[in-house]
Amino acid sequence: MVGILLAAGFSRRFGPSNKLLQALPDGCPIGLVAAKRLVTAIPLSIAIVRPENKALAQLLQEAGLKVFFCGEQDTEMADSLSAAVKLSADFSESNDGFIIALADMPYIDSLTIVAIAAKLREGAAIVVPTYQGKRGHPVGFSAKFRAELENLHGDEGARSILKRYPEDIIFLACDDAGILADIDTPADLRL
Fold first, then answer.
1. Are 109 and 65 in contact (CB under 8 A)?
2. Residue 18, CA distances (Å) to 10, 49, 50, 67, 127 in order
3. What dotted CATH number matches 2-190?
4. SS3 state at 183
């Protein structure tokens, strides 16, 4: 299993500072908390960051993730996800799948990520966690979707795969409100 932490966004709604380096109420940076929760559940995890985000890259590497920089052309979420999946082949040719997490979602419980990975190992094709009937993150994809994940483009991320294969989705009900809580603006830090 490979964990992928998408940390290459521009965070335009947050303002001029790097949102992923902003401290949560406990003082820990957003991106670091998300990274630690992912790598705790999936030890073989990678992060994809923008080339100018050296401080973030260092934090994520110190947390135990393999860090890669996206190319200048990889400006949309799908582009950075595609790059991350391609890069994962360098250190894991065969795996049960991918857990795709977002670096601006630090409140996801590691046990939720473990449960998603377990469903993939049991043979699920796509696993989407839900909380009180609402879909959340991270999403798990079996290895059979590697080629499609590698060929994604644009702003939609892996949503296009979910739309194409609704019959392959397993919804995993969990008691984890963190799967819905992303941080987009400074006001979201006060949750």
1. no
2. 8, 12, 11, 17, 30
3. 3.90.550.10
4. coil
Residue 44, φ and ψ in degrees, nearest 5: -90, 85
Centroid of chain to Cα 2? 11
Of the ranges 1-5, 124-128, 154-158, which one carries the lowest mean pLDDT score?
Answer: 154-158
Residue 178 near residue 130, CB atoms below 8 Å: no
Model pLDDT for residues 27-51, shown as the tens digit of each residue: 999 999 999 999 999 999 999 998 8
What is the Cβ-side half-sphere exposure of residue 128, based on CA atoms within 13 angstroms?
Answer: 19
Are 174 and 130 spatial neighbours (Cβ–Cβ below 8 Å)? yes
Report the mean per-residue pLDDT for the chain: 88
Supply φ then ψ for residue 92, to 5 degrees.
-155, 90
Q: How do the domains of the chain map onto residue ranges?
A: 2-190
The string of pLDDT tens digits covering residues 144-171 is 999 999 998 877 678 899 999 999 999 9
- Cα atoms found within 13 Å of the Cα of residue 61, Cβ hemisphere only: 10
Helix (H) or strand (E) segment spanning residue 190: none
